[in-house]
Design goal:
With 343 residues, the chain is mainly α. It contains 15 helices and no strands.
Amino acid sequence: MVNDKMVNKIKQQFDSNALWLGMLIGALGYKLFLPLSPILPWLIFFMLFFTFCKINPLDLRLHRWHWMVLAAQMVFSFGSYAGTMYLTHDPILAQGLMLCFIMPTATAAPIIAGKMGGSIQNLTTFTLLSNFATAIVVPATFPLINDQLPITDYQFAEQFWSAFLLILSRIAPLLLGPFFAAWLVRLIYQRRTKSEFVLSHRMAQIPFYLWVASIVVLTSVVTETTISNYQSQITNIVTLLILSFFACLIQFGLGKLIGYKMPAPSKGRDYQDVLINPAAAPKTMSGVSSITAGQAFGQKNTSLGVWMAQTYLDPLSSLGAAAYIIWQNIFNSLQLAITAHKK
């Protein structure tokens, strides 16, 4: 009979390698998983629902590192665009690299941060802030970057609101839908039982495995898109693969540094911190914030990035976001393996 210790060891090994295995399976079997792409929004919805069930909405509050990471995101976004255009005069490379920075925080970031000992509450707050900031900044700037888009005063204003509402329509349902659904479940449970709502340990693990399934499907979509549309763009693919690697290192590294220098408390009003963030409990506040801010800056909503590029920029620039998927999941896999090794 398999004992609990062996089961836990197997589970830790799987969790540590699940992200890159998911990418590999999605890339090799993309024809098999591509038909599942319509269920991707539902996977993300339920992934976030179970994640938000862990936290009390009253625990979500802004901290100093939130504003610093958001400012760094914007500075690097447009600084990388201007620098790349100056050096290469290649709009595809410039737009592709800019996408690596301007993409908002991934909806799955709180899940990965929680498994490594980060603060789910603080990262959820930044995920909401980052995504809505992107919904404002992108419509205001992309028409100026893409000279094929109209930029007369009237058309710019009209296009801003049109693009803002369109981007918001893609972000809001997947962020606010599960957020308010989880809050409603929490309120109903507390009203009926007069006790605090807490997910069981097994239920708390569901979001991670839903994210792994999402990676398989998302990778299959990106693989099919790359193979079918960009076979003649080998030079751009290789260049953006290299540039996105350095963008990934910069964002994870700088985010960790900002979080370490600007630590923020993660304990909630309901004092369920050990239950919400079991891996974070024994760590220092600086260590928790370092992990949290690193994921906030480094883990990106790449599917939104691909869509924004294909909608508002040169479609080939979406290669930057596609390449970033590879590096961020490899980096997260390494972080999860290191975390598991320390336990």
